[in-house]
């Protein structure tokens, strides 16, 4: 099947894309530029400048387009045909000098010294249980403690019976946890008494004119401390002070009774 | 001189960071300034050239008392303030009618400047044809051997490429190749000094066309051009070239952007990829070869034949 005739007919329908030049053009495709060093026809340029320039430029542009179409072309979706441009060949000066390397910050110096490296955690992690890549946190991630699972293994429990006993024990015991040997009964009694006093004095007249209840001690508050007058008997004062001093010193150098002190301390705690 | 600003909020900090020197730079900003007196031609030229460079270009509307070849300070100030490194100054006087000065900055100082006079000008509005969508990358065609031989022309070529190249892209959509800037240089050098433009009697033709791609029966389309943009006829006047050392620093490519050399891999004449493997030295004495008993050296050469016959009988 000889299709050459048909091909020829097809080709002749369209205009040629080939251009003949004495000296081939130089290209810098990174800049989409073509450089033509062929001599121009001076008289044509003088007489019919615009037309000549247009046709001359058309030839140059055709060669440039041919060259561009020789680059690796890819077909991108919604965009069309995209040509990958090479790096620029002509040296074009920069506008600012190259940046100077910044000195490392305090942290960077420390990290270098200690050999600390930044470990970036990836968003997705391979979950063995589910057998697929899921996010580390967030929606449908591995971080949710199995709250949304329909079936969860009972973890850290020995037997189901022990679990039940634990629960019932928790419910029944209303006693607070006591750290020391203090009697729980006594503590409760003092606590109650304190609460009664608080309730009693929380009236407008601070409980002074309340009718006394049978069996209740009337004088709950401690007696007010009485002080001697400053302008009293000097002799009396002297005796009082000396008696205190004698009590301390008289015990033949033993100021502190260690045994008594320990006992008292234990009682208090 | 501009005082250094200390950022007081995040917004200013971001702006300052944008203006910092970087390894891969931003698109250059250009400013179009009017001198103390301008003509209508110059004004139109400035606005058209600004339009060609749609984004990143600032057109000053007021007249400024600015003389680029005499005094640099006001120019430095304008460029620093607007963070621009390209400028065009238009002026008109009896001595230099319809004057344009194209220039570049590096590191806050003027790098190089070229002054051109407009001989003929046709604005974009005068040419009633559809214009291309602005912001596209143009194609460039430089015609004339002067662009390879003459320093003025080389600098002008470099400048034009710098002015209109747009953003550096790794790949380009073929349908986005909409217009072409063609610069043609005519004339010849009348004296041996090819740095002084007054030795030229030639002109520069600046033309901008829109590209129409038509079917060609093959993958590559047929190109047709349509007149679009401003058309100018320039003539070179004064120039100021960049100092060698400064130009060297300005065109320095940082190590990170240089293509990495792969050792021991190359391409031979045919075009095949060839690699070289370096093998260490071999001790030929310790080579493992096929052992041939017949070639073994006996202790006494006399007994050789006897031994042989004896062995044969035994076998």
Q: What does it look like?
A:
The complex is a heterodimer of chains A (269) and B (315). With 269 residues, chain A is mostly helical. Helices cover 38% and strands 9% of the residues of chain A. Chain A is built from eight helices and six strands. A two-stranded antiparallel sheet of chain A has the order 1-2. The longest helix of chain A has 20 residues, at 49-68. The radius of gyration of chain A is 52 Å and the shape is elongated. The mean pLDDT of chain A is 80. Chain B is an alpha+beta fold and 315 residues long. Chain B has a single domain (27-250), classed as Rossmann fold (3-Layer(aba) Sandwich), CATH 3.40.50.10480. Chain B has seven helices and 13 strands. In chain B, strands 1, 2, 3, 4, 5, 6, 8, 9, 10 and 11 form a ten-stranded mixed beta sheet that branches. Chain B is elongated, with a radius of gyration of 34 Å. Chains A and B meet through helix 1, strand 2, helix 3, strand 3 and strand 4 of A and strand 4, strand 6, helix 5, strand 7 and strand 8 of B. Chain B: It holds the Pfam family Brix. Chain B: It is found in: Nucleus, Nucleolus. Chain B: Residues 290-315 are annotated as: Disordered.
Secondary structure: number of strands of chain B: 13
N-to-C SSE series of chain B? HEHEHEEEEHHEEEEEHEEH
- Top-tier CATH class of chain B: Alpha Beta
Roughly what percent helix of chain B?
10-25%
What is the name of the CATH topology of chain B? Rossmann fold
CATH-scheme architecture of chain B: 3-Layer(aba) Sandwich
Largest interface, Cβ cutoff 8 Å: A-B, 57 and 68 residues
Overall structural class of chain A, as computed from helix and strand content, comes to: mainly alpha
Molecular shape of chain A? elongated
Average pLDDT of chain B, rounded to a whole number, is 83
Arrangement of strands in the largest sheet of chain A: 1-2
- From the spread of the alpha carbons, the general shape of chain B counts as elongated
User: For the report, how would you describe the main beta sheet of chain B?
Assistant: 10 strands, mixed
Share of residues in strands of chain B: 25-35%
- List low-pLDDT spans of chain B: none
Strand content bin of chain A: 5-15%
The span between the termini of chain A is 116 Å
The number of E-state strands of chain A comes to 6
- CATH homology superfamily of chain B: Brix domain
Low-confidence stretches of chain A: none
**What structural category arises from helix and sheet content of chain B?**
alpha+beta
